[in-house]
Amino acid sequence: MDWNRMMEDQPVVMTMLKQSMEKDRLAHAYIFEGMRGAGKKHAAWLTARSLFCPYRENAAPCGECRECRRIEHGNHPDIIVVEPDGASIKKAQVEALQKEMTYKGMETSFKIYIINDADRMTAGAANSLLKFLEEPESPILALLLTENVHFMLDTILSRAQKLSFAPPAPEKRARFYREEGASETAAPLLARLPDEAAGDYQGEATDWIVQGRALVIQLVEEVHSRPHQVLLTLQEKWLAHFKDREELDIGLDLLLFWYRDLLTVKHNGQDLAYPDQRETMENQGLQMPETEIARILQLILDAKRKLRANVNAQLLMEHLLLRLQEGS
């Protein structure tokens, strides 16, 4: 992604970075936080290219020089990237980073390190980084990237400037998930789920989402056309698929997306979580006033809140489905 495109997608963040670079007032550490697909990694690498590019103009790197090309290919010796080793970023990784940062830049006096998924640092790693953030031994820029800033230590947050990336449009997120291996039917749903939920169901594991999607379509059809079948489907299929509270919460989200799509279709909108079901929704929408759809959306949101309050999951779903049928 080039600088101008990133300026269009994230104008607030990129303008702040641009102004800081033009005035030579970059902070020594930044936290780039925002949803998956918002462009945090692109912004980090564009920032690096801008700082090393000898031909940058208005903070935008040229993209053609030797420095820009090396950074684009990930082989600049003065840029260090840290990724989770398995499930977490470990203390030893941060210590190795600190050691590397004590050496003089191989080609410049300046060094940059990028930590992806910074919220996944262990307590030991986070505490090691904290000391490093407080007392950098040479000109260093730290870029910490996270989708879950609330999982990071307050002491780290207080020593870095936080830049919040605006959520990307659903279609952009869907494209990101398709590139990661999600199917055409799963991607629009993953794009609308919170990162902590969607992140677990990427790639090959999207079969679970696709199966859940099919259950939503079946359940909605039964609620409005075959109400005598609903509780049987709940017992035999729904609760067998959405086994725990976290999974059931995702199931409620998938149900919520259906009725949101129904409203979108009634207003001739195009951006749908279930794009291949448009004809079904048009027919269903003819039979349901907007007030009824709004009532159902509120019922599902109430069910999500009750689920987090440890209400019995089976009783919760039975009650919800009975309430959904009241207007049918």
TrEMBL record:
Q: Which reaction does it catalyse?
A: DNA(n) + a 2'-deoxyribonucleoside 5'-triphosphate = DNA(n+1) + diphosphate
- Repeat: present as a keyword of the record? no
Keyword presence, Nucleotidyltransferase:
yes
Q: What is its EC number?
A: 2.7.7.7
SUPFAM superfamilies on file: P-loop containing nucleoside triphosphate hydrolases
- Enumerate the UniProt keywords alphabetically: DNA replication, DNA-directed DNA polymerase, Nucleotidyltransferase, Transferase
Name of the molecule in the record: DNA polymerase III subunit delta'
Organism of derivation: Salibacterium lacus
